[in-house]
Design brief:
alpha+beta
Amino acid sequence: NGVDTWTAALHDHQQVLAGVITRDELMSKEDKEKYKTNHKEKRHTGTRGGKMKSSHKKLDKDASKVGLKFCANLDCKMIEPYANNFSTCARCCYTAYCSRDCQKVDWKRHKKECKEKAKLAKEEEIQNKSLNCLLIGESQQVLNVVKYWHHFALKSEELQNTVTEDSSRVQFLVRPKVDDLEFGEDPGNLTMQDIALTWNAIWSMELDERKKMTRRFVKEINKFSWPRGIPDFSVARSWASHGVHGVFALVKHTPKGSVLLHEDDEGKIKGYLSVGITQSVQSLLVSVRQPLPIFINTSVIPFKKIILCQGTIMPAMGGVSSKLNSVAASFVQGSNESGVEVLEVMPMN
């Protein structure tokens, strides 16, 4: 009956707390598989009346800040159902485990990298305090969308039918790296150069073809089961429709981002206050030893209520108009006679 079931569950819970048995030993194989794919946690917050209410906003905020972690035990496939669900190594405060057993199994491997992981934890702490790049969890979400969108694009008929140098280049250099992967598998073998080339190929597509390819991507990717904290992949639609690609003039760094000027097809120059994905635009260009303005080839895309620099930046090889050159030079000197509007949110019309 119900009392017996409750008593048995309480007994099991006490046994786990006492360390007599582990949670994994209690769970059947079927239960584990169900937990991996369907387990959803709710955090509760108190109300003024003393009642409890579930707070998905709190879960989303945590996921945006710290992201979701995989269990570091290579033989385990568990991922956090919500942010901060797994415990981390007490030494490095970075590597996460779903259980004490997994941590014990992985220690021989992890102890060799523990100090390096501690450095990553400090870097993430600095990133979360920065206003000119995304929070850790947000950057994780964006990179996930980029990764799977690019994988889909590389194999898409729309990109194959795009007759441009950029499309031909990725078909020859990048696509072979994902040919053996099914869509939905992690294309983690793509380098930053591969990603930069794929961005260029996507932007070289006709707008209607790019939007068509992205609609199919969103439809297919949403067939998979994703843990809480993964963003709505439909954000790729706004990238495909409203992203701006080409030559930009970097004219100013601020605590909230870097100002990039761009001349559109109608000859109008607009400014974009852009932040980086994992690091600021300024830090991406720290090795460039020249004064502003710096002319670069990149793109800016909308994300939530900010403007993102796509993360891959190349020097502008020609194509800088005299108008952009002149306006950028004046902007750097503190003059904005042309009345350039600096946007903090991407127009979506």
